[in-house]
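To: structure desk
From: M.T.
Subject: fold request, one chain
Message: Could you run this one when you get a chance? Sequence is below, nothing fancy, just the single chain.
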Amino acid sequence: MAANRPRITGITLNVLMPDGTTRVHTIDPKAAEALAWSDRAVQILGKYYDKGGPAEGKQMAREEFLQHFPHGAPIIGEQPHLTVTPDVVNQIWNHPKEDGNTPAYLCKSPVNIVNG
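Reply: Done. Structure tokens follow.
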């Protein structure tokens, strides 16, 4: 018998930028299964891709990686694909975006990680 569980129907993030401005990000819970916005949570997300983890060996094609992380060219380099590991998740988390700021959050979709 299925649990009688409430459903999350929307996720809204209010983000305070380093320059004092605010931004609002809306996440579709149908397209997200995890949200990480702290160093500790990103470490936990990274373990998902570690040896023995459910997504061990997960690879992203270069085009797909750059679609999710347009600023991630230095992470993937010239490789045609990239194996996602805890180290790669950490690099994504700590790599500045085009505005010079590191991501405010990482969102795990059923298929891939997305940053915001």
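Reply (cont.): The longest strand covers residues 11-16. Let me know if you need anything else for the meeting.
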